[in-house]
Amino acid sequence: MLQALTKTSKFVNLLTPKDKEKYATECWDLLQQAYKSIGGFQSAANPDQLIHDSFMWKLNVRGGKVVALRVYKAQYGRKAVASATDGTSVGKAALREIYKEDLTRAWTECSGAVEHALKKLGGEAYIVPASYAEKLTGKKVTLSEDGMHYTRRIGDHDHEKIIIGSPTGITIDRNVTVDEESWPKAASR
């Protein structure tokens, strides 16, 4: 069945450990490369843990090679916890397509390049106010003044994050007033 999906679908969703095993090493290597500049991929210690601790992998496979991927946990729907590409323009375009589709199907905590990319793809309309961060993440957070960002400890470091997407099982009021100077697009949503 996996072969049929690979040939007929642009994206392949992998749910079972058996299906994930086929691509585990390749995906692990892409994730290691993608997170190298920030100290490495921290969500799993090895490919086997990644297989068993994740709910779903969404891959774009071209010519038998993974060019883009996103990894999800089952938490208030699909929580995207990692993404990577092979560095090619095809892989980057495929990941942008995953990001855009995920605005209505999944949610993520993000910052930096991913935050910028999601906003550029229309993510401003899917920003979840920071007041929901503790409930969604299950972690202690410190809210930022803009009402959209928050800081939480990941490993040994504090990281400022924002939640973008569509969590399920919770009602989100996205009409939160924020300081227009620090978040100029919020007033136009």
- CATH hierarchy class name: Alpha Beta
Low-confidence stretches: 1-9, 177-189
Radius of gyration using CA atoms only: 17 Å
The outline comes out as globular
Helix and strand string, N-terminal first?
HEHHEEEHEHEHEEE
Layout of SSEs?
Blueprint (H helix, E strand, L loop, with lengths): L1 H7 L2 E4 L2 H18 L12 H7 L2 E7 L2 E10 L3 E8 L3 H17 E5 L1 H9 L6 E2 L4 H5 L4 E2 L5 E6 L2 E9 L24
Describe the structure.
- This protein is α+β, with helices and mostly antiparallel strands.
- The chain has a single domain, classed as Aminopeptidase, CATH 3.40.630.
- It is 33% helix and 28% strand.
- Strands 1, 2, 3, 4, 5, 6, 7, 8 and 9 form a nine-stranded mixed β-sheet that branches.
Task: Please name the defining characteristics of this protein.
Aminopeptidase; globular; disordered C terminus; alpha+beta; 189 residues; 33% helix; 28% strand; disordered N terminus
Short description:
By secondary structure, the chain is of the alpha+beta class. The chain has helices spanning 2-8, 17-34, 47-53, 89-105, 112-120, 133-137, and strands at residues 11-14, 56-62, 65-74, 78-85, 106-110, 127-128, 142-143, 149-154, 157-165.
